[in-house]
Specification:
This protein is of the alpha+beta class. 24% of the residues lie in helices and 22% in strands. The chain has two domains: 127 residues, N-terminal domain of MutM-like DNA repair proteins; 125 residues, Helicase, Ruva Protein, domain 3, CATH 1.10.8. The protein has a four-stranded antiparallel beta sheet with strand order 1-6-7-5, with helices on one face. A four-stranded antiparallel beta sheet has the order 2-3-4-8, covered by helices on one side. The two termini are 29 Å apart. The chain binds a DNA duplex through α5.
Length: 271
DNA sequence: ACCTAAACCTGGGCGC
DNA sequence: TGCGCCCAGGTTTAGG
């Protein structure tokens, strides 16, 4: 999934379903997924559901929070007496809540994780302390320009570097670069002021579209209510190898690997 | 400082 | 149907 728009979609729904509810039990089927600290969550009442980059943060009223990273195949799904169980053979953690609510963490590849932290330490001492600014919140055009000017590495690598900028992954990096007509291999500090501004707007645009369509269910991702997102029907470049470019109609998308990740480019638009 | 490959795991899709 | 191979929304780490 699990880039900013997918996690944000889940966060919004969890906020609706979890806040004000108490955690009664936590059953861990995969210790790799949730190695320690589950007992600190027992009896805690959820006060907020936050997100930083691709990480979900659930805060409790007892001084603890838990962080969830979905990596590639994680699913966070809520069910209640009115919504049927979403458990499956990839269910790694089951949280039981009051009033019959349940929260499932499903993850085929077991790359995802759940970690417990003291709420006051989340921002400065947890995984999220290493994350760069959020494109839809803390980032400004000026700050974005400063980030790009400080590196000669390929622009696509910088967009996906969570320490520089948090939340953008492979789908939205590919789409934003196509929308901005910028070649992914371009050195970040080679972009002109005009290109930088266009790219900044393109990032905001594709992320907002991702949220509007409730994320991209290309593979495993589903919303917290167990439904598929629709952004995969609106991909601009991602996954379009050999397809004609929807903008210039002349180019045919090529695919190559950059930084080990599939990269999709219209050779005509993205010189 | 930067790059690549490999590692962590498992399933889905494709060709044969 | 089955088998082998390649691919996958992420991140970390080892080695050059």
């Amino acid at each position: 999934m699990p880039e900013l728009p997918e996690v944000e979609t889940i966060r919004t729904q969890l906020e609706k379903h979890l806040v004000g509810h108490r955690i009664l039990s936590v059953a861990v089927a995969s210790l790799k997924t949730f190695p320690q600290g589950k007992e600190k969550l027992l009896g805690g009442k959820v006060t907020s559901a936050r997100r930083l980059g691709k990480v979900l943060i659930i805060d409790l009223d007892n001084g603890f929070s838990f962080l969830i990273h979905l990596k590639l195949t994680g699913q966070v799904v809520y069910s209640s007496s009115r919504i049927p169980n979403q458990t499956n053979k990839f269910t790694r953690v089951v949280f039981k809540l009051d009033k019959g609510g349940k929260l499932f963490f499903n993850d085929s590849r077991k790359f995802g994780w759940v970690r417990v932290e003291e709420t006051r330490k989340v921002a400065e001492e947890s995984f999220v302390s290493r994350l760069g600014p959020e494109p839809l919140r803390d980032l400004t055009g000026q700050r974005f320009a400063a980030i790009l000017s400080s590196s000669r590495r390929p622009i696509k690598i910088i967009l996906m570097d969570q320490a520089k900028l948090s939340g953008v992954g492979n789908i939205y990096a590919n789409d934003a670069l196509w929308l901005a007509k910028i070649n992914p291999k371009r050195s970040a500090n080679s972009l002109t002021a005009k290109e930088t501004k266009i790219l900044y707007k393109a990032i905001v645009k594709v992320l907002k579209d991702g949220i509007k369509y409730q994320g991209a269910s290309d593979q495993w991702y589903v919303t917290a209510e167990g439904k598929k997102g629709n952004y995969q029907e609106h991909f601009l470049a991602y996954g379009k190898k050999d397809e004609p470019c929807g903008r210039c109609r002349k180019g045919k998308f090529i695919k190559y690997f950059l930084g080990g990740r599939g990269t999709y480019v219209c050779p005509v638009c993205q010189k």
